[in-house]
Each structure stands twice: as structure tokens, then as C-alpha cells.
Amino acid sequence: MERSSTTVLKCKPAGVEQKMKRARGDKRHEMIEYAVETFSLTKIFSDWWGRAKVYAVDNLDLQVRANEVFGLLGPNGSGKTTTLKMLLGLLHPTKGRALLLGGDGSDPRINSRIGFLPEESYLYRYLNARETLDFYGRLFGLPAKIRKMRIEMLLDMVGLKAVANRAVGTFSKGMARRIGLAQALINDPDLLILDEPTTGLDPIGTRQIKDLILRLAERGKTILLCSHLLADVEDVCDRIAILYGGKIQTQGRVRELLQQTSKRQITTGAISDKAVERIKQIVRDEDAECEVASPMDKLETFFIRTVSAAQQKAQPTSGAVSTTKIGDFLTQHEAVESVLDKLVSAPISEQASGEIPATEKVAIESTKPKADEQLLSKLTEPVEKTESEAAAGEEKIKTEPVESETQRQEWVGEDILNKLTGGSDALSRNKSKTEKPQAGDSGDA
Amino acid sequence: MRSIWAVAINTIKQALRIKVAVVFTILLFVLLPALGITTTGDETLKGRLQTFVSYALSLMSFLLCILTIIVSIYSVTSDIEQRQIYTVITKPIRRFQFIMGKLLGVITLNAILLVLFSSIIYTITIYIPRFIKASEDELIEANNQFFTARASLTVPEVDVTQEVAAKYTELNQRGELPADMPRDEVIAQLTKQAQLAKRAAGVGQDLLWEFNNVKPLADSIFIRFKYDVSVNPPDSQVWGRWFVGDYQFFRYGTESKTPIYDEVHKHSVRTFHEIEVPAEVVPEHGHLAVAFLNDPLNSVAIIFPPDGLEVLYKADSFTGNFIRAVLLVLCRLIFLACLGVLAASFLSFPVAVLFCFVIFFTASFSGFVIESFGFLSENIGAVYSYSLKWLIQLLPQFDKFNPTKFLVPARLISWSLLGKCALLMVCTKAFLILILSLVIFSYREIAKITV
Question: Which CATH number among 1.10.3720.10, 1.25.40.10, 3.20.20.30, 2.60.120.260 corresponds to the domain B197-314?
């Protein structure tokens, strides 16, 4: 209810580089500076006579620093996937060289630290979800107990536990995508290469992947993301490169590339019109323009809230059950995990399944004391809608620099709460209130 | 090793769940018992057993060969074409391990199916005598000539080179050589004539063969033979008087310590027959003579074809022989699995299947192919002997190691024969093929070109 009366102030100028402050996890694997490095990597597809036909990738010098989320963008056919295939040794470069984690992409020692999700989830149609993960787990030589534990966690995380015994061939595209993601994570990779990870996924799945990426980055993992869904890239990437015609057209930090340095944004709680007037006055004194609006929910948030509510009522579905869980082994720091693995090598099956509800409980409990923070996040989030999305993301993090990740996860829980306690009312009110300021939107700058 | 095994298990699951293997399995489950009931052969128990084993074993071997080709090719090409390999090969598994895993899976699946079906064939074979309630005589015949593994001694072709050379010189001197015939052809014809003469007996004439190291295990030895005749007698049957005993006695007239077999039989021409001879006629030193007299009752010359005479004696049990026969089939399957993987490493599914079938069928008639090219070789010469000949030699000889060829006449498949088959087919040819496929697969580009 308070939420709906949030007010947004947008004013000029200046913004602050923020996301760089992201808390980072352990850096044990960071002996090497670059997780991915290519040296004039070139791929020419030639015709039958050996004449060069297409420069799919052209003298590409790409550097992905260890422990960063890197987005490789570009329109269809710009050479993104070809680059990935060369990195992983699926295609041989015509010229140049690629290093993954300081080694060759087809070296098993390197492969054991990489997770790869191809542009489509190419799965063995005749295996069921659990067998699929078991197969990939075996390829990594994971001991049976750890394998079982991780499989159950991953199935739980991608929401396919209920259909784990169904052949993957009968899965919808999004469900297949989820299994594809799970197989890429089974070895808890240091470098995660995702080719169009969110295609075919519902908004909850998309949100979850984004959360996951941020979580992994927090733990010191490197993520190379290939996509043309710009909103997703923007939300998670530290740096991006835009490819066209097999060449890098531009690259740099997302913040630096997108920030509107000539604007500032302030988000407040429900303040009186009088206060707004005073602020406006202050802004006018600074010789800047000012615009006041109530923030809108993102459709994503709204969607997640609705579906979560349905899930709360336990409506049956033949599809994936959307969760916002992230497998424990992916979120714990490695030292902890190795201890965990050791513990787990004791009798395990009950323990593994018992662990998950426990985590859930913790998540729910932790929601309550952080109510204020949630409120804050609620207040800040709608900004993204009303203002240019880029600047919005910036400011939101500015308001709550430390706990951005954890909150993302908890929003859903809070949303459900709202919904149950008459949140829909609040929503309609919210709408009516936002109408007025929206009219002034165009006079923004 | 663990990753190889993971791929192998996956391959087996694939073969079973895409129902290729299931179809073949059901087919065999239905066909084998059906064969057991329907085959009658020449209405005798032995004939029935021979026909069943021959058909059942050939059918099983053929279907498993086809299955091997299809599964080994499909499991590799489908991974590449449907791109599951993207996620597999980027895991800590080397490409050769991937191929080895596929191969291991196919071979394991085959070995399981082979054991299953050969047990069925074996059981049916053993139960056929009880099932048809055979008479005592038929049982004895079946035990002697089918449920056994007999070693075979054959007569080598007599060397007639010198004789032919002399004859040629003589003809040349007399100027009787046909003018329009090259020397090679004349020599070949003369050789044929001379060899035929060594195997022919005119009315009242005899033929003598010698055999060394005859060591029978059972009470009887068998003479297996086939008559050819110059002119067909009215009832297509001829009389023959057979002698078996100590070679020294026949050759030099020394006194024999062992009895001499001497009996007259009437047999039809142009089919194989066996006469049972008590083993006591075999001298201790194992130097045995078999003699044939063209009985004066006949009015035609009798000729023994090149493979027309053998001495057989029991050397092992039927069961042991059957197991080795199955192992011969396994060698064949291993070769085909390697071949399938090789084809799949650089060809698409339909092309690879075609390629393997061509090799498979050629290999099934390799004896014939090699022979016919042998005739050509004299004219084609160097080009042939340095290129094609080697390629053909690289083919496995499925017909030479065909198990039915041994089981039907109850011929011993010796361990040395099995070893030779394994050495040639598996350790040499299949191994070379495997190495080649590993090299090709390791260096090829896995991904499709998509721009």
C-alpha cells in the first residue's frame, strides 16, 4: 500500500559508477588475468573449391577478464556462436588462437572447469531428466554421491523435479532449456558459457537465470553470455562487446556505455505534495528541470507475482514448476562446498532431499527482518519503467548497494504476500495514481 | 575410463529406447523358435538339426551384423546431426574416449544379444531330438555326425608342375600346341588335366590317399566323400570298395598289427556321403591309408572333386564347438562395429550405412572376390597387385570364418582357427580401422557451419 505511493524524482545531472562495487567471492582461480582470450581469431567458411566465402569471425581479439560477466552481443549471423564454437574446439579456427582459462578449449582439464549451454538444448530425447544429468555428471567423473546430490538440487532449482522421470524428448522448449542449464552447472564451473540462455524461457526462468548469473559472479566465476535479448544482458553484464560481421564494433563496461551522465534520479517513499513542491523548488534553484511520477511495476514483476500466487495455491501443471531457488552447491563458497561434499559422502539420499526445504525455510524467514530493504527495492524498481532503463538500473543499485542480489530473490516471496493480502487492490490503486504523472513523462528531459 | 563407460551405457540405452535393438530382438525371438518347428531338412533328425542350426545361426548372425552396422553408425551420426555432441565433447572427455565409448556400448550390446540368442539356438538344438521323438538309429546318426566336433584331414592337391612342364615341352617339340593359345593358358589346362587324372579312377582302377597324425577320440572315424562321374549311370548310383588301414601295409605290404577295413558300398553320385569306420583300424603311429577301388560292377570312371575326400574323427564336443562358433560371430560383429564407427566419423548416416553394407556383403563373399581377381591378376598385372589386391586383402573374410560352414558338417572349429580369426579380423583389421576412425574423428570439425 505504501508501495503504490512511491514517488520518483528525476533530475539532471550526473550519475555514479556503481555496479563495479559488486561484492565478489573468493578468487582462488584468478591466477590468470583473462578467463577467455582470443588472438586474431578468424573463421572463414570456404566453398567446395576452397575459396573463401564468408568471414564468420574476423580477426577477433576478445578478452574476458576472470570473474566478470561478459556479454557478447550482435544481430543474427554476426559470428557470436561461431566464436563460442571455436573457443570450445567444436570448430577449428582458420587463423588465430583462443585460450580458455589459460588453456585449450578441447583439453579435458580445462573442460572440467567449464559449463556450456549451446544455443539450443541438444539433449538425448530418450533419456529422462534425471538420467540426462546423471550422464553429464558421469562425464565429469563426479562420485556417485555428489552426483546424486547435485542432480536433485539442480532438478529442484530448475523446477523439473516433478517431471524428472519423463523422457526429455517430451519436454517443451523452455523445459528443455532448463535441463540444458542444469547440465551446464553440474560441475560447478569456473567459466560458464551461455549461448542465448533465456530463449524459450518464461519470465520466471529468465529472472532465475539472471539471478543465478549474478550469484555465480559473486562467487568469483566468469560468465560469457551470448545473446541478443538486450534487456537480459543489460541486467547482468559487467562488460559487453557488440559483434557485427565477425568484428567487434564496440566494447566496454555496460555502465560506461549506457549511463546518461546528464541526469540523476531520486526515489523516495510516499511523501506529501508539499514536500514534492519543496524538492522541485530546490531543483529549480539548481537551474535544472524536474519531473515527478509514481513508478510502474515491470511486467516481469507482475507476471512473476501472478504465477507465484497460482503456485502457492498448488494448481497442477504438466510443465516446469518455476522456482527461484538456486542449487546450494552453486551458491556456497568453495571451501564450504568441499566440506559439504565430504559430509555428503556419508549416507546421503535423505540428507540431500531434506536440505532443500531447509533452505527454503531460511529464505522465508530471512524475508521478514529485511522488510525495509524489500520496501526499498520495491520503491526503486519501478523507476526502470518510467525512465530510460539504463539509468534506472544504475540508480537502483545506488540506493541499495550491498544487498541487491539477495533481494532480487526475495521479491517474489514478498509479491506473493502482497497478492494474498489484497495486493491486487493495491495494484489497481497504484495504476490510477500513476496515470497523472505519466502525462508529464514526455516532458522528461 | 569412467567417461568411456558413461558414453557406452548411454549408447546401449539409445539402441534400446529408440527401439532399433528391440525390433531386432523381437524378430529373433519369434523367428528362432518358429524355425525350430518348421525346418524339416531331409526329414531325418540329422537333416533337421543341420537345417535348423544353419538357418538359425545365419539368421542371427546376419541380423546382428545389420544391427551392429546401424547402431554403431546411428549412435555417432545422430549425436553429430542432432548436436548432442556439443554438450558431450565440451565435457572433460577426449574425442577418442567418446568414440571408444560408443564402440564399447555397441560391442557390449551385441555381446549380450549374442549370448542371449545363441543360448536360445543351443537350447532348441539340444531339444529337437526329444521334441520330434526320433528313432534310435536317427539318434545315433545325429550323435555321430552332428552332436560332435570332428577334426578333418584333407588331401592336398598333388603337385604336378614338373609333369606339366615335361608335357608342355613334349607337345611343343611335336608341334601339337594350339596356335591361338597363350602359354599360360595351355599350362593351366594341362595342370587341370593332370590333377584330374590324379583324382580319377577308371573301372577296376584304384586310388590311394595317405593321412598323418590321425588320433581319434571316439570309437569311429569317418570317411566323407563325393563322387563325380564322367557319364551318369542309370540310377545315379555307383559301387565303391573302400579300404582303410595302416599305410605301411598298403604301400609296402608290411604286416599290419591293426585290422584292415574292407567293404563295398553303393552311393549316389554328386552328393556327400559318410562311411563309418571303426577306430581300431587306425595304427598307433597315426599313419593311415584310405584306398578306393572303382568296382568292376560300374561302367563309368569315378572322379573325386578337389574337396571330395576327407577323414573325420571326433576331436571335441558339440558344446565346445558351438561356443567357438559364437565367438567367430563375435569377431565379425566387433569388426563391423569398428567399421560402422569409422564410416560414421566422416560420413552422414545414409551414406555410412551404404558404405558399410557394401563392405559387409563384399566381405561375405570375399573368398569368391579374391579368387576371381586372382584370375584377372595375370592379365592386369602390376596395377592390380600393388593396389586393388591389398585393398581386397584388407577385407575381412567372413565366408572363410563362417560358423555354419563348420557346425553343419560337425567340423571342429579349433582354437587356433578361432585365434587366427581374432588376430586377422579383430586385432589387425578392426584395429587399423579403429585407429583410422579415431584419427579422423579427433581432427574433424564437430560443429556444423552456420552463418
Answer: 2.60.120.260
